[in-house]
Sequence to fold (120 residues):
Amino acid sequence: MIVTVADWLGGACLLAGALLGLAAAIGVLRFPDALSRMHAATKPQVLGVLLLLLGIALRLRSMADLGMIVLVAVFQLATAPVAAQMIGRAAYRSGRLDRDLLDADELADRGSGGGSAGPG
Fold:
């Protein structure tokens, strides 16, 4: 009985993770600016990968597999925010974003930190 419930929960997690990954891919293709694409590339994608990993863990249930799944989850959580930060910084410096969309522009008062797209 518990094995069947774990299999069904694993399947549901796999399906939800795949749908979030699909939503992230559609968002990257359809969103108009770099900041929106950055959001689509990181937020639902990370949650989708974590749901996929949870679904795989519920289906496999071996300690060797669980160790590898935990490592993949930790690396995903560690690298996705850094990648989003670098994408946002590159978009800001190259001027490929609409500054009217920013609520606050913390990089504007850094002088040369804004690059050629700085205020002026």
